[in-house]
Write a structure and sequence with these properties.
By secondary structure, the protein is mainly alpha-helical. It is built from 5 helices and 4 strands, in the order αβααααβββ. The chain starts with 7 loop residues before the first helix and ends with a strand.
């Protein structure tokens, strides 16, 4: 069922839960405990847009490999996925402000902490 079919309060809960679960999974995979970059979500629309990146298990796997000095092709090899699929997911993560590429072409997380302030 589309998110918009739920009452606003339920939408907020579902999206917040999805983000929390994602961050916990990413933290457990990467061992990240200290935050460096923060993203504050201030509206329901922002929360909905960010949640689009968390729908994909591929995107979560990519974030788990970020900050480990891997290029797109190395990440694709490690995940046994086509480079084009990995690249598309990385583009979505970048568009949402969750990832970036450094000067060496290696993927990095752009956000360590997401704060929801609705």
């Amino acid at each position: 069922m589309p998110l918009s079919k739920y009452p606003l309060k339920k939408q907020r809960f579902l999206l917040a839960q999805a983000i929390f679960d994602f961050l916990q999974e990413t933290k457990s995979k990467t061992g990240t405990e200290k935050s460096v970059y923060h993203l504050t979500i201030k509206s329901r629309d922002e929360l909905y847009e960010i949640s689009k990146a968390f729908k994909s298990t591929l995107a979560m796997d990519i974030l788990a490999l970020a900050d480990k000095g891997h290029t797109v092709s190395e990440i694709a090899r490690k995940l046994n996925k086509h480079t084009s699929n990995v690249s598309a997911s990385i583009s979505l993560l970048k568009e949402k402000g969750l990832a970036k590429t450094n000067s060496k072409g290696q993927l990095e997380k752009a956000v360590k902490v997401i704060k929801i302030n609705l």
